[in-house]
Write a structure and sequence with these properties.
2 copies of one chain form a homodimer. Chain A is built from 10 helices and 4 strands. With about 240 residues, chain A is an alpha+beta fold. The longest helix of chain A is centred in the middle third of the chain and has 30 residues. Chains A, B: This is Glutathione S-transferase.
Chain lengths: ~240, ~240
């Protein structure tokens, strides 16, 4: 089966977590909006297609199934792509971790858009500075310490005992945070050795290395979730 | 099996979506922190227990399984409690809808806490007023119109063709929004007839009606997700 991924063509965004899974598994897929333009997304959002109604991209077409929401797409793809350890308990844990990654992504996005996604960054800079400070001092350490602890506990057990889509998403998180908050991430460096090792391991996987070096990997930019604004990431 | 729900004892919060499912199904469960105090939650968060590590409550103990994240808990409970239509396609759609409800809940919470969950409302009132205006004018209509359309399409098809945990969560959303934003919800009234009918139907289900009238239902208050601050919900 040829999977069809629908996501905005100009950013990594939430679509990237799905792209990484499809690329890592080496399966046949088409990144629809990058081939045919973002307009290809609209009929689904307007309810002109059969099946599930997505609230927003990304969504995946797998045969007749339309699946929206990154966590749900990955929970579906995991067993099909061999990207989750076998057994109900591991599948549930992987999904729970992906949900927490999803919560973290919202908080990362809201550092630069704390008031309205529909308004420019420049219109909400004062609030963005405040929210980013709380993010750097409280939320970033809390989330990263949590995932570090999960890896520490997971060795040889349940989730993360084998390569999974959660690993791919954690790689994406670390990459994006290094881009958006290089100073804050430098200060976290010694506290996340297992996350660093995981991210390096993922980057060296042949299919992922090939993908990252290809034009299919959209560079980080200031339209996506991970944005670098120097004033939101001071050196101290 | 006796389910154990772990959630803060003083608020409805995210735990309420799980409580409604357990109550509607009429199964045996214990609301642990309400019986033994919030301290009963801590060993799990500190990693002193076997199994999955929760990032935050709510989490559910089902035999030896520890399941965190509301969406994941409901995806697990749905088939066990008869609270999702049969078949993979319906289960996926229900989970996708619950994910979107989850996204909506974050936005509802952030109307009163746009800067930091760890700070008082009074410390972020200026940003809260701005974010709430965008919420009332853009986000609230967009999410409610989406769910209204889902119900319209769903009749006789896939998800929402039968009673499910998604119905219970939509009931909770409508109830909470009526509490927090009565004026904004009055202005939405004519545009959500199907959501209104669904919420009334859920409230009349015998187990739900009994639950709502019982002391187990914690009243809405200004510690939870749905808070009523008059300045965030002007009459016009």
């Amino acid at each position: 089966m040829r999977y069809e991924l629908y996501y905005w063509s100009g950013i990594q965004g939430r679509g990237e977590y799905v792209r990484l899974a499809l690329e890592d598994a080496g399966v046949d897929y088409v990144d629809v909006a990058r081939e045919r333009g973002d307009n290809a997304i609209m009929p689904f959002l307007r309810g002109r297609q059969e099946g599930a109604l997505p609230f927003a991209p990304p969504f995946l077409k797998a045969g007749r199934l339309v699946i929206a929401q990154t966590v749900t797409i990955l929970a579906y793809l995991g067993p099909h792509l061999g990207l989750v350890p076998g057994g109900q308990s591991a599948e549930i844990y992987a999904q729970q971790l992906q949900m927490t990654i999803s919560d973290f992504i919202v908080e990362i996005h809201d550092t630069h858009h704390p008031i309205a996604a529909s308004q420019y960054y420049e219109e909400q800079r004062t609030a963005a500075r405040k929210r980013s400070q709380v993010f750097r001092e409280e939320r970033l350490p809390k989330f990263l310490a949590y995932f570090e602890q999960v890896i520490e506990r997971g060795n040889g057990r349940q989730a993360l005992s084998r390569h999974s889509y959660v690993d791919l998403s954690l790689f994406q998180l670390i990459s994006g945070l290094d881009y958006a908050f290089p100073n804050a991430m430098r200060r976290m460096q010694k506290r996340i050795p297992r996350l660093r090792a995981l991210a390096e391991r993922v980057a060296e996987r042949p299919n992922i290395a090939a993908y990252l070096a290809s034009p299919r990997r959209i560079p980080f930019n200031e339209e996506g979730i991970f944005r670098h604004y120097a004033e939101l990431d001071p050196t101290r």
